[in-house]
Amino acid sequence: MKLFFDQLTKAGFLSSAVLCFSTFSHAQSFLDPEIDPFAIANLEHEIGKMAFVDLDGDGDQDCFQTNYYDNEFIYQENTGSASSPNYSATEINPFGFSPAAPSFGPVFVDIDADGDYDLFSSSEEDGTTFYYENTGTATAPSFGSEEISPFGLTSIFSIFGNFVDIDNDGDLDGFGAIYFEDLGENKIFIAENIGTAEAPEFSEPLADPYGISLTSPDFFYFLDFADLDQDGDLDMMRSESENSNIFYHENIGTATLPEFEAGEGLASPFGISTLGTDQYFFLPMFVDIDDDSDMDLFVPTIQFTDTSTVTANNFYENRTVVAGLTDNKFEVADFSVFPNPATNNLSLLSFSETESIESVRILTVDGREVFRSNKWINQIDLTDFTPGVYIVELAFVNKDTQQLKFIKK
After folding, report:
1. Sequence-separated (6 or more) residues with CB below 8 Å from residue 272
2. Where in 288-326 does DSSP place strands (E)?
3. Maximal CA-CA distance, the chain
4. What is the pLDDT of residues 83-139, one digit of tens each?
5. Which of 130, 170, 224, 231 has the greatest number of C-beta atoms within 10 Å?
């Protein structure tokens, strides 16, 4: 049996029209895709994966890719702004990287809860997991030497996958797919973090925990997670290497006890068009690329023709969150935070009845809870927070949640 973690970290999308669905408490609205936006490099290889991460702590999303064939990490700094991104020329193996072997990835997470982003990637050939600890800081990254299969992670096949706090216990769990050679089939799996946020340790992978049916025996499956229906838990979007559809599985459980809709899921969800002949979705990636507090979507595609292979980075901008089936008003956050950036204290101002607020949380951009109050408060002490980007989340008694970003200097 070979393992395969497919790629990570956070939205749904529609056509250019504003639509909503009665089955959701909230629904996402996306524009039609833009191709290769923001001067992001199209590396034109068969499995391209982008990772967006604020690697220098300046409040915007920088971009990383890997060039498997040339054994390179490719970095592009966001030289625009958080709300209007634009990417610099590519840099090869920056920040002290010296990969010893070709790898797919990258996946950036704060795996050791020290306030900066570490890097994972993996070998397509034998499933080796590569790990590079950020030995610098959240604003001045520097990466240590390559480590092999850390934290109890077993060998995997192909693209390294997602780390998300799927059970809301404050640490990051691993998701991907297992390929069974003897059966010629794949199954979704989870490797639970049975250690802590600061000292992770991963269990043996549990195959098929949710009864999800993968429609092809092909090796390559890709997952990402986001709260697509705005109900406070993480839903799943997946693609597969030889399929012209993308698939959605709603989390019908809770934030702490997830349960995803079984079977093949909803193909071409939220109005996403099926691709053309010999054209396939790869590696869905959710990120708030324009700093407007909703999650946008990147989906690389590949098309095979008689004479060439054509790749593209498809970008679906999330336009708004709409309130319901009969209410098409754009929703505005019921609170504000200031100052932003903040140094020692963050003040909160509510525009709604504070009695309706069930909790106030601060999350890292990975979704890890670092502060919680089970009642409304109007000021939070940030003295012990590591500088970086955070999210303030209000949860209301009617189960709605709202989020705003801020920067801790």
Report:
1. 13, 14, 245, 246, 316
2. 296-304, 309-316, 318-322
3. 64
4. 999 999 999 999 988 888 887 778 899 999 998 999 988 776 666 788 999 999 999
5. 224
